[in-house]
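seq:
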Amino acid sequence: MDNIATRSLAGGVASNKKYIIIILAALALANIIPNLGSQHLKLNQYLRTDDNKEVQQSNRRRDEEASLIAIGDGKRRAFPSWAVVTQCSLYHTDCPNHLEFQDYPFPLPPATQSQQDDEGMAALANKTNEWIDEFKQRSDTDSDSHLIGYEFPAKVDDAIRQKCITSTQTLSVEDQLDKILSHLVPLKDTHNMIAFSMTDETYAKDMLHEVYEMNNDIVGFEGAFFFVAMDSYTANMACEFGYPVVAMPENDDLKKQVQSTKVFMSKLLVERGQSFLFYEMDVWFVRSPLRMLQQHMHEYDFLCSTHQWNPGELNIGFYAALANEGTVNYFEDSLIIIEENPLAHDQKIMHVVADDNTATLKNRTLQDHNNCGWCGHENVSFPAIKATNPIRVGRLDPHVVVSSLYPVPTEGTVALHTLADMPLKGPFGKEMVAKELGVWYGWGKATSKAGYYHREGSYRRYLFLENAGTRGGQSFVQSKGYHDERAFRRQIAVLATLAKVTNRILVLPQVLSDYHAQPLWIYLDLESLEKLGIVYRETNFASNKKSWYSHTTPFASVTQMAIVESSNEVQLLTGNQTTASADRIPVSSFTTGDPLSAFFAVAISHPQVKDSEALFVNLDHFQGGHIGSVGVQKLHDKLAWCAWGIGHGKKYNDKSATHLGSTNHCYGSGNAV
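struct:
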């Protein structure tokens, strides 16, 4: 075989003039208020004449920084502290070193005065006291999903759906395939190819829309793609949304069915003269493979991806085949061996048969495969395949389709295939790795106002943790809460409850361990979040520009929020594309004696917070002590945690994010504490 080298909110104007200058300049420097120049002119009427010079200096600095948007000019831009999560992913340990963060602090400096008038304060306090009882009830119920849920693609009408379901239930696989092929339009400029993928319920629930939309938008096989359904759930779901599907007979032995189905379907296609591309549901494309296929399928009959750790070993998560007598024989020979040896590994068998084809083509001596321990879960024996129509086999460079437990994409990568340590592992870990790496497609880009990344207007409601100096995360190596698992769990319970009662999407915080920045999902069983009705996103969500408000702006509005113990007040700092404002609210203004309830009340009732697209909360005040609220305690008791714990000497303490794979989680198996 040959190697292929591949390539913030309506608020009053602050009376403290100096503080206004700081806030406006800071927000402008962060480029989250791109049209702030005209706004400065409006605000100048509230300032004394002798302040104008300082304002002008701020404007000049803003204009200078605004001109540095282009990447690669060797200069720096100043960012607000919250922006670290939009600029630095888990994997970029050195990222903050290359950024300049604004020198004004949040929480706010002591000199800044409260902007809340007495009348407004009383109204907020009344609203808060009414809300506390509601909070206790609401934290026990599912979140209102219309703002944080999804807007799914349109379903087909009942007649079309039923006709599709009837076909999957009454026609043979061959007849279903013939019917599908009569409606697909092969790509003439890509060797008349079509494409398919296969899935069962575990993958279809989260990935059916994902893969279908990715296929049309990136892969390039729109109108030339179908699913192979391994169960009735998947077939019915595909029919419901009008996705072309061929249903296999259900089989209790899923492993055996999966191993033979891709080879069986490949054989059926080439027997019908149909060239094709196959890719598994956990292969995520960053660019179309069409150009690659157009180039290399002139040279090969069968082109397959390889493993990142071994460029000589086939990975059959991605392969393409031209229809000819040789490929018919190749898939037939492979299928016979797989069916006769139930413990054989389909991937290994296809590799061996491909090697025999290459040996035949090159007139090398063939040897029987006796006691082949490499071929499956036990030794497998079968004679050498003496191909009568040997095929030309091509292997892709391992950096083109990156197949690995720990995939490392490059500038030449077409797709990533996230692997597990064993075949047929559940999809959760693979999904999370793909999302953290930024290759998860995120359906809804073209079909929805409330998709995974692409969300518009009121559907953009996010909650972030912003404890001071922790890269937008939670540290368990700071003096308060050092290696304290209970304090760590309290923080996450407060954050999760806040997400629930404010009806926001929780963006999972980074966890700073003794040595590394890590994702929360290696410590928290995320299924327990899902059962509580909490919608979440991966840690690297905000650094993925697919989630941004616009190409240059991560959020339309941002509010930072904290309780400051020294002044016993809730502080807010808000900015959007046209205005900036700050507020201080003394905790003593609330009848409740619980700072946490006061904090929650402001988060759900204060107009600045309520209307902000992104809410960043500093929970340092709640690091120690009891949880306080009954609602938080109830949620805390329902969260499940991974058995290996946190801190020095624990299982994943010394694991960097780059060395966390699809099996380093406890989804569905965590324990409540």
